[in-house]
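README: folding subset

This subset contains proteins for which both the sequence and a predicted structure token string are available. Records are stored as plain text. Below is the entry for DUF465 domain-containing protein (65 residues), shown exactly as it appears on disk.
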Amino acid sequence: MEESEILRRLELLRVEHRDLDVAVDALRMAGAPDQLQIARLKKRKLRLRDEIALLEDQLIPDIIA
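--- output ---
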């Protein structure tokens, strides 16, 4: 993957991660929050965070000490 492609993918993943934050907060504020749906959204957020970390690692060059 080219650096520009990685940067675009990172931006999309970060936006989706923020959107999931908003969705989780909205569900929590609901009268009777759906705990299963909240758990699914949180799990998706964790997968996104892992993918973001992997892509960020690809942008950092390996330095041999």
